[in-house]
Amino acid sequence: MAPAPVFTGVQPHIDATPGAVDTRVARRRAARSSRQASSTPKIKRPPNSFICFRAAKTHELPNVPAKEISRIASVLWKCVSPEEKAYYKGVAD
Question: Signal sequence: where (predicted)?
Fold first, then answer.
């Protein structure tokens, strides 16, 4: 009896020969490199009110992992009064 195939979660490309794979990877790397070397720097998006609120919670919870802070902040944000949300909107603007 043959062993069951291992599913990696990735569908193989029809042309999965080593040369074809290397070419696709090289093209992807070249495209990424040209985007990174763009003459105009990418403008960072300004933080919204929730991000400012989450940053405040980060300072209050110094030894908590970022994933847990995000979870806690999202629960708290849903319970925050409109006045406090307005404060963080002002901080964000």
Answer: none
**Residue percentage of the chain with pLDDT more than 70:** 70
CA 58 from centre of chain: 18
Question: In this predicted model, what pLDDT tens digit does every residue of 6-21 receive, in sequence order?
Answer: 656 665 555 555 556 6
Residues contacting 18, CB < 8 A, separation 6+: none
78: closest CA among 56, 53, 59? Answer: 53
Segments forming the whole domain that contains residue 59: 49-92
In a domain, 53, yes or no: yes
Low-confidence ranges of the chain (pLDDT < 70): 1-21, 33-39
Whole-angstrom CA distances from 37 to 18, 26, 29, 59, 86 are: 28, 16, 12, 34, 39
Long-range Cβ contacts of 15-19 (<8 Å, 24+ apart): none
In a domain, 16, yes or no: no
Domain count, the chain: 1
